[in-house]
Specification:
The chain contains 13 helices and 14 strands. By secondary structure, the chain is an alpha+beta fold. The protein has a five-stranded mixed beta sheet with strand order 4-3-2-1-5. The protein has a four-stranded antiparallel beta sheet with strand order 6-7-9-8, with helices on both faces. It is globular, with a radius of gyration of 22 Å. The protein starts with 13 loop residues before the first strand and ends with a helix.
Length: 418
């Protein structure tokens, strides 16, 4: 289908939700509608989906009724994860000439590249996304970075360059980003916002350090852009041509009526993960939580964790993504950790270890190994090319009294065989 970038949009109060697990055979999921005076989006499943589909999230069971969000400024259930993130909304506001921009429009204008396996179309007979076209390739990276700079500076962007930025490719965040085809596979590419430090390269270094700590992370690579870098993140919601249904922890925990926290997500995995993978999945989440604490990643909010639906209907924890030091030293994580709420301490992380299926000694051993590995973070970052001044800035927080004393205590125990 031709790119609709220049088409005139006529506002309407209903759109259609499609399932794109197999993009060659889209399936109608249901009808989306305006709710709460345009500040929310509802869903009613189509008869065919009720017969042969699945519940998109726990708060959207397969029954013939109109599902309406309890809150405003969101879409119902898992449909909310099909919305563009804050950067995507910014791109839509700049590029789409629309007389109305409600949540319903944002869902449509996110296009065909959105995260997960859901699609939105104006018609219920044929899946026809608002925007579809060839994905830019690596040779477009520098031009793409130039478009991002123009958007950040609120400058005009020529029509032909607008195709280089895609608005619907991630779950959450305001960082500039788009998609690239690298060796025939889709990668999310994130750019600098003009900070004094090379945040994209730091993210790549942090993600690779996490992998060395036994944390399953999305594959990344650092791409030179001007005097700095962009970071490319391989999409984990795509397997070949297939698209995986993805549910953020925000949606999953809200649907289950649970508080937003690591222990609650660990317990949710007990219900939704394959039986033979529950233990390893819970341990993975614990490792991720501990690493985030030790690396001062306090932006670990609930949209930075996701569940991926498997062919058998079970869910697995997605690889970790958006893992980067916040360089703020807040002392609190974005979601709950343990008995002391969101407090960024290893004692707090240990306090509810059993919720992760771990005995205290096993949890301590994991912390000790991660703490020992994180102790060498400066050497790792330097090997990845992170500049000395950037390492010095991060060290104020990662090696600050709050975190260093905790880390050194556990690392010393590990070195001594305790």
């Amino acid at each position: 289908m031709a790119d609709k970038m220049t088409d005139k949009y006529v506002p309407q109060d209903r759109l259609f939700l499609w399932w794109l697990g197999d993009p060659a055979q889209p399936r109608l999921v249901g009808e989306l509608g305006q709710a709460a005076g345009g500040r929310a989006v509802s869903l009613r499943y189509a008869p065919g989906w009720l017969q042969a589909g699945f519940a998109l999230s726990e708060d959207l069971p397969l029954v013939d009724e109109l599902f309406v969000p309890r809150e405003k400024d969101c879409a119902v259930g898992a449909v909310d994860d099909a919305r563009p993130d804050r950067w995507g909304e910014r791109i839509i506001r700049k590029f789409e000439a629309s007389p109305r921009l409600s949540i319903l429009e944002f869902l449509l204008f996110a296009g065909d590249d959105r995260y997960g396996a859901l699609g939105v179309s104006q018609g219920g007979d044929t899946y026809a996304p608002w925007r579809r076209g060839p994905m830019p390739t690596l040779d477009s990276l520098q031009e793409m970075a130039a478009v991002v700079r123009k958007v950040l500076a609120n400058e005009a962007v020529p029509e032909l360059q607008r195709r280089l930025v895609r608005p619907g490719a991630s779950l959450g965040g305001a960082r500039p980003k788009s998609l690239l085809d690298i060796d025939g596979e889709p990668w999310l590419v994130k750019f600098s916002e003009g900070e004094d430090i090379d945040t994209p390269l730091i993210e790549h270094a942090t993600m690779t350090l996490a992998r060395s700590c036994g944390v399953e992370v999305a594959q990344t690579q650092a791409l030179p852009v001007g005097a700095g870098h962009a970071v490319a993140v391989r999409r984990f919601d795509r397997v070949g041509q297939a698209r995986l249904h993805a549910v953020s922890a925000h949606v999953a925990l809200r649907a289950a009526g649970e508080a937003l926290g690591y222990p609650q997500l660990a317990q949710l995995l007990r219900r939704v993960a394959p039986a033979d993978a529950i233990r390893s999945q819970q341990e993975q989440l614990f490792r991720r939580m501990v690493f985030n604490i030790l690396m001062d990643n306090t932006d670990d909010h609930e949209k930075n964790h996701a569940l991926l639906r498997q062919a058998d209907g079970h869910y697995r924890l997605s690889p970790a993504f958006d893992v980067v030091p916040s360089a703020q030293g807040l002392g609190y994580q974005a979601i709950g950790v343990g008995n002391e709420g969101t407090e960024s301490t290893l004692v707090n992380a240990l306090s509810q270890a059993r919720q992760f299926g771990l005995k205290t000694d096993a949890a301590r051993a994991i912390i000790q190994k991660i703490a020992s590995r994180v102790s060498g973070w400066k050497k790792h970052f330097k090997a990845k090319g992170v500049a000395g001044q950037d390492i010095a800035l991060l060290a104020q927080y990662i090696d600050g009294d709050k975190l260093r004393h905790q880390r050194d205590e556990f690392a010393a125990r590990h070195a001594g065989g305790a």
